[in-house]
Amino acid sequence: MGVVEVGTTSEVEFTTAYQPIVDTSANGTVFAYEALIRGPNGEGADWVFGNVPVADALAFDERCRSHALSTAFAFGIRERLSLNISARAICHRRHGLYATLRTASQLGLRADDLIFEMTEHDPIPDIEKLGRWISAARGRKVKFAMDDFGAGYAGLNMLLSLRPEIIKLDMALVRNVNTDRTRQALIKGIIDACSTFGCLIVAEGVETQDEFSTLSMLGITLMQGYLFARPELARSLIATSGLVFKAEREAVASP
Ligand SMILES: [Ca+2]
Predict the structure, then answer these.
(1) Run of H or E residues at 5
(2) 95-99, 209-213, 251-255, range with greatest mean pLDDT
(3) What's the pTM?
């Protein structure tokens, strides 16, 4: 459990849970674990960040990524790690991307095993500057994913400007994809566009066998969601990994 003092009078307790992104073309092996911030009793990220003063948000966010790295290291998780970072934080000199890379280096974790999921809930004021920071980080073999693609501001302009290695289709696009031909057509178009620059696609929030089957038919092999595994704390992740993999295999074995 991490405890971070914020502001002058308060502190915030948090921990990290990990949810696998599975490769359904490889018997459901884990492609990466996404690190997700949680409260001490399993509260969601919004609850945790709701306790953090706005002025401390970037520093706290960086502390969360450090905690995710050190916890994964302590529990012997050696798969790729996918870390959430806001587009604004990437460029922050003190609490941004490079602070996280320094932590990874101190732990002996390889930069090319790290994926940064760019989240953005506000417009990006200077996308060219962001692109320069991302290009520089790619020199260290770091990979970037565009999070929640199809929701909010994570849209076509970012895709075209930043050319991420991975995009994560928002669960709003995935939900009931099996019964909605418009969603299927949109996803086909995204797959076509991404294939022109070698961008991988992850479907987020996959919950049913029917969604899984339709996404597979469309050609998506990387998936994340309750159908495969819920976010788990590192300790229980190790203890239940057999069950996680069993669920993945059953899902993959379906049509
Ligand atoms: Ca994410």
Answers:
(1) strand 2-6
(2) 209-213
(3) 0.87
Distance CA 244, CA 230 (A): 9
The tens digit of pLDDT for each residue in 28-70 reads 899 999 999 988 888 888 898 888 888 888 888 899 999 999 9
CA of 117 to the centre of ligand 1 (A): 6
Q: Ligand 1 center to residue 9 CA distance, Å? A: 30
Task: Using the mean position of ligand 1's atoms as its centre, give its distance from the Cα of residue 34 in Å.
Answer: 7
* Cα–Cα distance measured from residue 255 to residue 253, given in angstroms and rounded to the nearest whole number: 7
Domains and CATH numbers, the chain: 21-32+59-72+81-226 (3.20.20.450)
pLDDT tens for each residue of 220-230: 999 999 999 99
Question: Is 204 designated active site?
Answer: yes
Instruction: Dig out the tokens for 214 from the structure.
Output: 């339709």
- CA-CA distance, 70 to 66, in Å (whole number)? 6
Catalytic residue among 204, 211, 232, 248: 204
| Distance in angstroms (rounded) separating the CA atoms of residues 241 and 236 | 8
How close is the Cα of 122 to the center of ligand 1, in Å? 16
